[in-house]
Amino acid sequence: MKTIFQRIKKVGLILILLILLFVIYDPIEILAIDLENFSGPDSPEIERLPDGSVDCKAYENYLGFEPAEVAAACQINVPKIQNSSGRSSTDLGYAQDIGFISDNFVSFTLNNFSGQTVIGTNTYSYYGMDFDPNAEVLWALNDTTDELGTINLSTGSFTGVVACPPGGGADNWTGLTIDPITGTFFASTATNLYTINPATGIAASVGAFGVDLMIDIAINANHEMYGHDIATDSIYSINISTGSATLIGGTGYDANYAQGMDFDNEDGTLYIFLYIGSGSNVYGTVNLSTGAVTALATSSPQGEFEGAIKTPGPLNIKIYLPLIHGKPYIMPDPPILDPIDNNGSSSFMVNWSASDGATNYLLEEDDNQSFSSPTTIYTGPETSFSLNKTLGTYYYRVKASNLKYTSGWSNVVSAVVTIESPIDGTWTGSISGGNSITMLVINNGTEIDTLELYVNWGGACGVAGVRYYFYDISISGGHFYKSQGAGETNVSGDFNSSTTASGDFFAYLDTGSCTASRSGTWTANYVP
Q1: CA 56, 58, 60, 61 torsion-angle sign
Q2: How crowded is residue 481: how many other Cβ atoms within 10 Å of its Cβ?
Q3: Cβ contacts of residue 252 below 8 Å, gap of 6+?
Q4: How far is 223 from 233, CA to CA, in rounded Å?
Q5: CA dist., res. 497 & res. 81, Å (int)
Q6: Are 174 and 189 in contact (CB under 8 A)?
């Protein structure tokens, strides 16, 4: 009996020790994920195997955020590092969990990713974000609304500035980076590099990467761009003139879904927000010579993060050299905004006077004169900015700054938009009596490059139909008119909104032996 009792007692002690070890150190902590914390919406059509289980293989290198059911079914884990002391930088970073774990928008110091401060929550999906060269405005590409806009650093709320659908008809943007010297906006899809005009949202193709799954890009103060491809799990250098990518080396991690990375513009370090799956992530630095990632924190906290680092470009760094005296900085005067005479048109310029001693201007827009909810729409050295707005009343103010001083605000001017400029692109419609009209609108809705009027003559003078062409037609106040000659074919019209137009036409037919004429109306719409 004593021997049996001793054995039971020994077994019980061993079980207690195992339980204590499991509580203190859980090497497979990721398996204990609470499904109730998965705030990201599932895809309505989860890929499944014949037995009904999730097809994990189908979601390798998926470009969007990770569906919650996939995360729960396809468990992935990395050794946990709460925070590494390998970095001493205390610069500030911001990050957004894009929906898998928390929807939190957070701030943190670069040497303590684990010690995050939650600023707010946001259910939008951002696959690219970066600060402007002054590190004052955080820009983001909103994949939910297909807009380029700004994120409020005090609340985490997003304000759309301009429509900006993914370039080349891609499913979504994968990255955004802003040159800290020139202020050029670069964006990536999985296969191509683009530049974006932040005033219009228009994306211009730079070129193809030559890889298939470029998930994020970042550019430093030397105009050197790098990209992270999750098909090869490697870092590439990118030619910003052609888009061509050159392999540097592997990160050492199997990344999937949305990723992020950004440069600390003060010391040139590239930080990466590398997502593995099922909540597991790696926050670390990238070796620009080898591509290898040094982890500073892993899954601490869990989340699928896109992030940006709040450090200004080198032009905003004060450097003092002994015994060298340059021109001292002076306080710039507040700029003076010119009145906006847009005659109701949605396309107009905001112009202001140059301020002596100023190197930068910040232009704000609001829908009320008190500027209770302003949006920064431009920062840079220019003294004018082009806009194309929808119907409404808009107010503007601007201030000037240099490396040491910032002026007060300028006077406030307003613009009232009663006529929406047509959207650039192809417009098509029909004419009375049969057949069609086609127009190509250009230059922010101020000009029609080509207009084709196809008139059905129904056999008059033995003619079935004739195509009439008009070129270089100016649009003023939403109205246009063009004639091929006195008493000959002409067309006129009005753009009733940014996507609809209507008007009249007069067509003249002369076969040499027979003449005929016809007049009528037409309607047309913008074709996305």
Answers
A1: negative
A2: 14
A3: 233, 292, 293
A4: 23
A5: 56
A6: yes
In angstroms, the CA 450 to CA 265 distance is 46
Q: How many angstroms separate the CA atoms of 102 and 234, rounded? A: 28
Summarised one tens digit per residue, pLDDT across range 153-171 is 999 999 999 999 999 989 8
Backbone angles phi, psi at 316, to 5 degrees: -100, 10
CA gap 165, 159 in Å, rounded: 16
Reduced DSSP (H G I as helix, E B as strand, rest coil) percent helix, strand, coil of the chain, to 5? 10, 45, 45
Cα radius of gyration rounded to whole Å, the chain: 30
Q: Quote the pTM value.
A: 0.53
One-letter amino acid of 64: G
What pLDDT was estimated at residue 63?
A: 72
- Tokens of residue 494, six digits: 């009005």
Q: What does the H/E/C string look like for 362-379?
A: EEEEECCCCCCCCEEEEE
Structure token pair of residue 283: 């926050």
CB 437 within 8 A of CB 429: yes
Task: Name the burial class of residue 144, with classes exposed (0-12), middle (13-18) and buried (19+) by CB atoms within 10 angstroms of its CB.
Answer: middle
In sequence order, the 6+-apart residues with CB closer than 8 A to the CB of 266 are 91, 311, 317
Q: What is the DSSP string of 45-65?
A: S--B-TTSSB-GGGGTT-SSP
**How confident is the model over 365-404, as pLDDT tens digits?**
999 999 999 999 999 999 999 988 888 999 999 999 998 8
465-500 per-position pLDDT tens digit: 999 999 999 998 789 999 987 668 999 999 888 899
Cα–Cα distances in angstroms (integers) from residue 120 to residues 102, 158, 299, 398, in the given order: 10, 11, 20, 28
The stretches in the chain having pLDDT less than 50 are 1-44, 85-86, 88, 316-325
Residue 100's pLDDT is what? 67
β-strand partners of 468? 453
